[in-house]
């Protein structure tokens, strides 16, 4: 599956515990990554500063669903289910 245009759910819904440029302490779940542009695209895509956590994400129907709204819900649900 290819990333959906104008989505960005994977950059909003999950928490990220690794340091990111502009977010040295990572980001909380539900917090929009400051590296998302106005069209919900990663401004670090293809750049060496892009964290491996982000680069390793692959869009899959089970995670992304059929719409941006579904992706936000699914990823948020997975976030809660995997909290320790």
UniProtKB/TrEMBL annotation:
Highest taxon, organism lineage: Bacteria
Name by which UniProt lists this protein: Uncharacterized protein
PANTHER family: UPF0153 PROTEIN YEIW
């Amino acid at each position: 599956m290819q990333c959906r245009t104008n989505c960005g759910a994977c950059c909003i819904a999950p928490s990220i515990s690794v340091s990111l440029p502009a977010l040295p302490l990572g980001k909380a779940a539900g917090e929009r990554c400051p590296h998302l542009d106005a069209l919900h695209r990663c401004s670090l895509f293809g750049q060496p500063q892009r964290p491996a956590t982000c680069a390793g994400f692959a869009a899959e129907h089970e995670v992304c669903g059929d719409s941006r709204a579904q992706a936000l819900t699914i990823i948020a649900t997975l976030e809660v289910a995997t909290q320790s």
